[in-house]
Amino acid sequence: MTLSIEKSKQLLADSKQYLAGGVASSLRAAMKPTPLFVESGYGPRIRDVDGNEYIDYLLAYGPLILGHAHPSLAEGMSHALKRGVTYGLQHSGEIELAKLLTEILPCADRVALSGSGTEAVMLALRLSRAYTGKSKVIRFHGHFHGWSDAIFTSFPSADMKQAAVGSASDNIAPPGTNGQSENSLQDIIMLPWNDLEALEATLLREKDQIAAVITEPIMCNNGCISPKPGYLERIRELTEQYGIVMIMDEVITGFRLGLGGAHGKMGLKPDLVTVGKAMGGGFAISAVAGKRELMALIENGTVSHLGTLNGNFAATSAALATLRELGKDNGCAYIQMEHTADQLVQGIRALLKKHQIPGLVNQAGPVFHMMFTAETKVEDFATFNKRDAAKYSRFAELMLEEGVLVRPSGLWYVSAVHGENEVTATIEAMDRVLAKL
Ligand code: PMP
């Protein structure tokens, strides 16, 4: 079957005449056979302008934890929009949301609201540097922390240098894009993740210059790789010992692995946590949550935190509606999401076996990474890079023809409204696709 996507193709051509590149985020240009134009989304499904319908596992790159057009969110928003979108002044929704966040996120004494994950990370870095009076930041290969000049490195590739020893200058990453200052990453030290030795050696040598260690709790952006037992706990111990801020970037895992995020689930207390994506159910909102002493720097005016639309009424209402829905019935949504993801992952593993296609799935609750690889385990970035990315991209294209939208990189999101019907249809579609692959 060949997908009829003529209208999408035409709209892309039209779009390119006005919108730089024809898409609003560089990542979206990569979609094959063409970036799709959407007519509407409802529940776990999405329909394109050519009338094709897909089960949606892209979920807008993560925010749609309640699927499309969830009644609770739609209702919350129709009420909110009647009162105006944004005021540039305070409103009680901000207090309600901030209070809720301090209740559900174990690390949160105080929170600060922003508009995107990128901005939340920028603020977290700024707070860390101001608090410690130091400037260097350790981050890890294969993690992603947004596209600001302060931290955006080139997209991970198999040949990326992964120096673990030597001086910090051996571990400086190249800028992620043309136009980013050559000097913007001078203070960023890149290390391999899950490698305690590399981290300990670097910290011991350069602790007096290091303001923060920033890490995703699970390497969701590349392979959904879990931390080795004790790894994050050791980061916590060492950072505490050396007066370094531990930032956990929970833009993907926040409110997804549980209402308290990954750190809640793992029983860890980083100094700062960044959250976004799922928080607003599709509206642009993010937050930094953290320790009183650090957040006090915003309170006392020594650290600037700006943004015209920060804490706007529409986005805070969306976040309140989303988080309240997720918290209903003792977090029943999480049981549902995990169950659906488990069913999918079991089905995928069985199909890989049936079709004798070398591949595997790494799962972290309702998010998982499927890859084609001859490796039996993928527990670090270097091994992840041995996967057959081109084959997966072809697979994603064939899945689309079968009515299943998956991200070409291999990361799948499951929402609280995906269920048995979607799982069955997805596994049946995949059976046909793997037979062709
Ligand atoms: N941190 C992580 C872990 C992310 O995955 C992302 C986005 N994929 C970001 C930060 C940046 O978030 P945003 O796209 O909302 O700026």
Automatic annotation (TrEMBL):
Family affiliation:
Belongs to the class-III pyridoxal-phosphate-dependent aminotransferase family.
* Listed name of the protein: Glutamate-1-semialdehyde 2,1-aminomutase
Listed GO molecular functions?
Answer: pyridoxal phosphate binding; transaminase activity
User: Which cofactors does this protein require?
Assistant: pyridoxal 5'-phosphate
Where is the organism placed in the taxonomic lineage, from the top?
Answer: Bacteria, Bacillati, Bacillota, Bacilli, Bacillales
Family annotation (Pfam families): Aminotran_3 (PF00202)
Q: Which UniProt keywords apply?
A: Pyridoxal phosphate
- In the UniProt record, the signal sequence range is none
Q: Which Gene3D superfamilies match?
A: Aspartate Aminotransferase, domain 1, Type I PLP-dependent aspartate aminotransferase-like (Major domain)
Question: Which InterPro entries does the record associate with it?
Answer: Aminotrans_3 (IPR005814), Aminotrans_3_PPA_site (IPR049704), PyrdxlP-dep_Trfase (IPR015424), PyrdxlP-dep_Trfase_major (IPR015421), PyrdxlP-dep_Trfase_small (IPR015422)
What domain of life does the UniProt record list for this protein's source? Answer: Bacteria
SUPFAM superfamilies, sorted: PLP-dependent transferases
